[in-house]
Amino acid sequence: MIAALLGAPGVGKGTQAQLAAERNAWTHLSTGDLLREEVARGSELGKRADAIMRSGELVPDAVMVEIVAARLNALPEGETLLLDGFPRSLPQARALDQLCAGRPVGVALYFTAPEAVLTERLLARGRADDSREVIARRLAVYRETTEPLVAYYRERGLIREILADRAIEEIQKDLLRTLREVRADPSSVS
Known about the structure:
Elements: E1 2-6, H1 13-24, E2 27-30, H2 31-41, H3 44-54, H4 61-73, E3 81-84, H5 90-99, E4 105-112, H6 115-125, H7 132-146, H8 148-155, E5 159-163, H9 168-184
Parallel strand pairs: 1-3, 1-4, 2-3, 4-5
Helix pairs in contact: 1-9, 2-3, 4-5, 6-7
């Protein structure tokens, strides 16, 4: 099963996906981690991505699709995959549908929290690219390009909302309960 984790920067998708993957031997694919690996290696892709991310913009869809496609093709059949940071746009979602034609997204977990909470969480991370100005830009870009995914997955009956302005363990319990329900009965997604 493929679960797409949706939500604004700082909402905790990565933390939750990592915990769930570790506890259940699932695969966590974080496009943010993949991009940071490219930046650290100093690859051409990494250099381009670094400049884009520092400005608060999103890495182009074609680049992200290329990175994710390589990882998806390497996954064994039947693996539970938690996609963190992909898709972030409608073109990416449509590309994902084509990449996974035989193994479509089974649920889209939509993490929500107030913008003030997101800003404080991002500032607390202490990353060089997390200034107030860049955070404000990233949240604006999110609203413009990523929020339409909620409507896209809602129309397909795949959205499950998770309130992310709570303790990590409370959120994790909701995430695991939701994924177990969907794995047991895929028609339970609403």
